[in-house]
Design a protein that fits this description.
The chain has 396 residues and is of the alpha/beta class. The chain has helices at 77-93, 108-117, 150-163, 191-203, 215-224, 237-246, 255-261, 270-293, 315-322, 327-333, 336-341; strands spanning 2-4, 7-10, 15-18, 20-24, 27-32, 41-43, 48-51, 53-58, 96-101, 125-128, 132-134, 145-147, 169-172, 208-212, 228-231, 249-251, 359-362, 379-384, 387-388. It has eleven helices and 19 strands. It folds into two domains: 2-51 and 350-388, Urease, subunit C, domain 1 (Roll), CATH 2.30.40.10; 53-341, Metal-dependent hydrolases (TIM Barrel, Alpha-Beta Barrel), CATH 3.20.20.140. The structure holds zinc ion. The site of zinc ion (ZN) has 4 residues, from loops. The site of zinc ion has 4 residues, from loops.
């Protein structure tokens, strides 16, 4: 397949370069002036081609309905599985070709990864954490996480998640917003517990994402060697310095508290709205301080939290830009840098010969207005692994 006549995003220079993109066997075979190639041609005249977006933090089994991602009653498993497939399709049509799912009841994320891989569901590539691992009574228990206490139990839980098919590991280093009675300012797992989990994950070549909002929880997780701090609400200077020293990524998920704090009328439980308001301003200040200091960042929405819907993932790139990233850097946070964090840089995240042909065709220039990523009419097509997906675009 040949995408002809557009301009493609070059990650190194953060600019668009006029040229064609030739895809063969699911990969990018050539970039630039492609002459004489016999291929199905898609006219991309006037378009901007970017790498498929990568969302490093989703809960794709959840729709964003406020009743879902809380420890309440759930629909039968079969119906949730059906819906998860629909959410995966919606995510893909929003331009997201890779997701990392950081916790799902019944490990629906692991099942989804297998279903996509087998071609049963059209969706993004899925890196799945299975169930998260949290302390007894900790954030996420009863819905997206299992409980473990002490380094030995954490070690065993991580081993079991890997046995069940997890390709990433999620540990909870602090309290959070959506679990009633849990304070986001409280640290959770001890440094020893976190280190045991990281050791097991690292042995199996899995990256570790730590849910960490409280300052002490963040420091515990960074010291234990996690790959990314998720949320990072209360960063102080020491935490930022530790992250820089160790190359720990920040996945800020600015979208999650934004919707929760503004969602009282939408049926979000009052305890969550209150906590969402508590974190909102400090969260943005921490993100801005981290950026100013040069902490590595990658895009993650926490999709599935209330009103944070599949397919609307690109709104996070817009928020990351609103609070300090240039449009080019925001695009990288949602593509190349995210691939670096997920250990997928040799697979996707950039438009480079040899990488998977994961490409979003835009009718507008995202460097001129990053918000075009969130406008459905600006997405002319989504190509995943060299195949045109969904009902977006196609051969002309
Ligand atoms: Zn989450």
């Amino acid at each position: 397949m040949l995408l002809r006549g557009g301009a493609f995003f070059e990650s190194e220079t953060r600019t668009f370069v006029r040229g064609d993109v030739l895809c063969a066997d699911g990969r990018i075979a050539a970039l630039g002036d492609v002459e004489g190639a016999e291929a199905e041609t898609i006219d991309c005249e006037g378009e901007y081609l970017i790498p498929g977006l990568i969302d490093c933090h989703v809960h794709v089994s959840s729709s964003g309905d406020p009743a879902e991602l809380t420890p309440g009653p759930r629909l039968p498993l079969a119906r949730r599985a059906w819906r998860t497939g629909e959410h995966a399709r919606a995510t893909l049509s929003g331009g997201v070709t890779t997701i990392r799912d950081l916790g799902a009841a019944d490990r629906l994320n692991v099942a989804l990864a297998a279903a996509v891989e087998a071609g049963e569901v059209e969706g993004p590539r899925v890196v799945a954490a299975g169930m998260g691992v949290t302390m007894s009574g900790g954030h996420g228990h009863g819905f997206i996480a299992r409980e473990a206490d002490g380094p030995d139990e954490v070690r065993k839980a991580v081993r079991e998640e890997i046995r069940e098919g997890a390709t990433a590991i999620k540990l909870f280093a602090s309290g959070g917003v959506l679990t009633p009675g849990v304070n986001p300012r409280s640290p959770a797992f001890t440094r020893e517990e976190l280190a045991a989990g990281v050791e097991e994950a690292t042995k199996a070549f899995r990256t570790v994402a730590a849910h960490a909002q409280s300052t002490e929880g963040i420091k515990n997780a960074v010291a234990a060697g996690v790959s990314s701090i998720e949320h990072g609400v209360w960063l102080d200077e020491e935490a930022i310095a530790m992250m820089i020293e160790r190359g720990t990524y920040l996945v800020p998920t600015l979208t999650a508290p934004y919707h929760i704090a503004n969602g009282a009328d939408a049926g979000i439980p009052a305890y969550a709205v209150e906590k969402g308001e508590l974190v909102l301003e400090d969260h943005i200040a921490s993100y801005e301080a981290a950026l100013a200091a040069g902490v590595l960042v990658a895009m993650g929405t926490d999709q599935g939290t209330p009103l944070n819907r599949p397919g609307e993932n690109a709104q996070e790139a817009v928020r990351m830009a609103e609070h300090g990233l240039s449009p080019g850097a925001a695009l990288l946070a949602a593509t190349g840098w995210a691939a670096d964090l997920l250990d997928l840089a040799e697979e996707t995240g950039r438009l480079r010969v040899g990488l998977a042909a994961d490409i979003v065709r835009l009718s507008e220039d995202p460097l001129a207005d990053i918000r075009c990523l969130t406008r459905r009419e600006a997405i002319a097509g989504v190509v995943r692994g060299g195949a045109v997906t969904g009902d977006t675009g196609g051969t002309e």
